[in-house]
Automatic annotation (TrEMBL):
This is 3-keto-5-aminohexanoate cleavage protein. The keyword Nucleotide-binding does not apply. PANTHER family: 3-KETO-5-AMINOHEXANOATE CLEAVAGE ENZYME (PTHR37418:SF2), 3-KETO-5-AMINOHEXANOATE CLEAVAGE ENZYME-RELATED (PTHR37418). It holds the Pfam family BKACE. Coiled coil: none annotated. The keyword Cell membrane does not apply. InterPro entries: Aldolase_TIM, BKACE. Keywords: Metal-binding, Transferase, Zinc. The lineage of its organism: Bacteria, Pseudomonadati, Pseudomonadota, Alphaproteobacteria, Acetobacterales.
């Protein structure tokens, strides 16, 4: 069993400022939270950008460049920048930050899907900003677009153009088959870093049987050509990442995926979640991968070849 790569998704584009005072919003907060997560044991830092004044997700490369250099200067962690962006962004907008930064890794969603997070609005009593409630509520009529042409374009622009490799985000079984098709067509090349995602309404549910099925399906489709990782939304985060570690997989935590550290208790930082899953994995006699080891496992280009 190889060492476990811990990824940390620091802020995302799902949760809004009114949901937690601990959600990093400004470039300074995102940088500090990323560095602390790396110090706690995260080999990969997955990043979105937000408007510093309102906390709304933004594709603006200038905002990314306010925190990316600081993370690089203070940490050896692999920087992984979203190409999913935020709700309603075009593919051009979603690519703007990655093109500017030329990172070692980008996320890449492997299929279009209903992406319904409208119920999250029901749990917020007081809103800090006017954009938050409608942003969430309109997702009951939202399709997250990731066509085969979109996927091929991201690979062409970032993979072939920048030497960037991908975290292939698979929200359902069909997304694994989409990735297998892309592999067969030689659009993508191994090793594939396959992130199985559970618990988003519109994707596969957070059931233990589904975790097993995703693993078995990926094994059939990719054999020894992939590296498996797991994340789960909300209350399922720690349970599913623990099971992934036991099953020989890698894990992703972070405030993008869950705002909590335990039942009813908000996480005060991304580092808290990283430290918790690290402690669990080490108690299971599993070793944690360093950034250098993650680069070797995933065949990354190296931190000296990024654009920040």
């Amino acid at each position: 069993m190889s060492k476990v790569i811990i990824s940390c998704a620091v802020t995302g584009a799902i949760h809004t400022p009114s949901m937690s005072d601990y959600l990093p919003i400004t470039p300074e907060q995102i940088a500090e939270s990323s560095i602390a997560a790396a110090e706690a044991g995260a080999a990969i830092i997955h990043l979105h950008a937000r408007n510093p004044q309102t906390g709304e997700p933004t594709p603006d490369p200038a905002v990314f460049m306010q925190f990316l250099p600081r993370i690089k200067q203070s940490s050896d962690a692999v920087v992984n920048i979203t190409t999913g962006g935020g709700l309603g962004m075009t593919v051009d907008e979603r690519l703007a930050g990655p093109i500017k930064a030329s990172p070692e890794m980008c996320s890449l969603n492997m299929g279009s899907m209903n992406f319904n997070i409208s119920r999250a609005a029901d749990r917020v009593k007081t809103w800090k900003f006017d954009w938050e409630k409608p942003y969430l509520e309109r997702t009951d009529d939202y399709i997250f677009r990731n066509t085969f042409r979109d996927i091929a374009r991201v690979v062409e622009v970032m993979g072939k153009g920048h030497g960037t490799r991908f975290e292939f985000e698979c929200y359902d079984i069909g997304h694994l088959y989409n990735l297998a098709y892309m592999l067969d067509q030689k659009v993508v090349e191994p090793p594939l870093f396959v992130q199985s995602i559970f618990g988003i309404l519109g994707g596969i549910g957070a059931d233990q049987q589904n975790l097993m099925f995703m693993r078995e399906t990926a094994n059939r489709l990719f054999g020894d050509q992939y590296v498996w990782s797991v994340l789960a939304a909300g209350r399922n985060q720690m349970a599913f990442t623990t099971m992934a570690g036991i099953m020989g997989g890698n894990v992703r935590v972070g405030l993008e995926d869950s705002l909590y550290i335990a039942k009813g208790k908000l996480a005060k930082s991304n580092a808290d979640q990283v430290a918790k899953i690290r402690r669990i994995l080490e108690d299971l006699s599993l070793e944690i991968a360093t950034p250098a080891e993650a680069r070797e496992i995933l065949k990354l280009k190296g931190g000296d070849r990024v654009g920040f």
